[in-house]
Design brief:
This protein is mainly α. It is 82% helix and 0% strand. The protein has eleven helices and no strands. Helix 6 runs antiparallel to helix 9 (173-198). The longest helix has 31 residues, at 75-105. It is globular, with a radius of gyration of 18 Å.
């Protein structure tokens, strides 16, 4: 039985392991180069910002580990670690929203974002990430859905790394976010091309992932202009 389950995870899992490693390294690089270039002093950041960063590093570590375990057929350990992954994701969502609120309250949001846009960006991003993880957990026994939804969830959190590597002050907040959206969808496009080569067709989970990326960016733009959101942001900033 164990051999049959392990075989179910085989095949093209090496591709997903490499995608997990590549995405994780890029996110870490995006934040590190931002600090090295002197754009932020992490030593002066509030404690919740450090906790937020630690949780995201934990997510990336688990994301890579889980893919590698699946590739090696260590399904029992993969499932046990899965519940730790759920706990990390469940903590990331509210803490990300809180961090966004406090950034607006303390006037610490990036200067190229308006306060309503930044509040919408952090909140929508957190909710969409959490929703994608929940969907992946619900469909955890359907491997083809599960690993693609987990990949899509992690692509959703690529946005902050792109925000630190793209010339956002020159592009402007919304234009830069539009480019980040295209880049995120392009990364899922790599997985789609792999699907076409390996399976002959793109799996529906990747279309859902791309749709979530695009919908999230559009929703952020709309919410940032929504009067109740603007009023709420003013109250928080005051």
């Amino acid at each position: 039985m164990a051999t049959a389950v392990a075989a179910h995870y085989s095949g093209d899992q090496r591709f997903y392991s490499r995608m997990a490693i590549g995405i994780s390294l890029f996110i870490i690089f995006g934040f590190m180069q931002f600090a090295v270039r002197g754009f932020v002093d992490y030593r002066a950041a509030p404690v919740w910002v450090h906790l937020h960063g630690m949780l995201f590093v934990s997510w990336l570590t688990l994301f890579v580990t889980q893919n590698v375990l699946a590739e090696r057929g260590a399904i029992a350990l993969h499932r046990r670690l899965g519940w730790l992954t759920v706990g990390v994701a469940a903590t990331i969502v509210p803490l990300t929203i809180f961090t966004g609120i406090m950034a607006v309250n303390l006037h610490r949001q990036p200067p190229f974002f308006s306060a309503p846009f930044f509040l919408a960006l952090t909140s929508v991003g957190a909710v969409f990430f959490g929703s994608m993880v929940v969907a992946a957990i619900v469909l955890r026994r359907q491997t083809e859905w599960h690993r693609r939804l987990m990949l899509s969830a992690t692509v959703l959190i690529l946005e902050p790394a792109f925000g630190r590597t793209l010339p956002m002050p020159l592009l402007g907040g919304e234009q830069g976010e539009a480019i980040a959206c295209v880049l995120q969808v392009s990364i899922l496009g790599i997985a789609m091309l792999h699907d076409r080569s390996h399976r002959g067709a793109v799996h529906p989970a990747l279309w859902w992932g791309a749709g979530a990326v695009i919908t999230g960016h559009v929703l952020v733009s709309l919410l940032s202009r929504f009067p109740p959101m603007m009023a709420l942001t003013e109250q928080i900033a005051a």
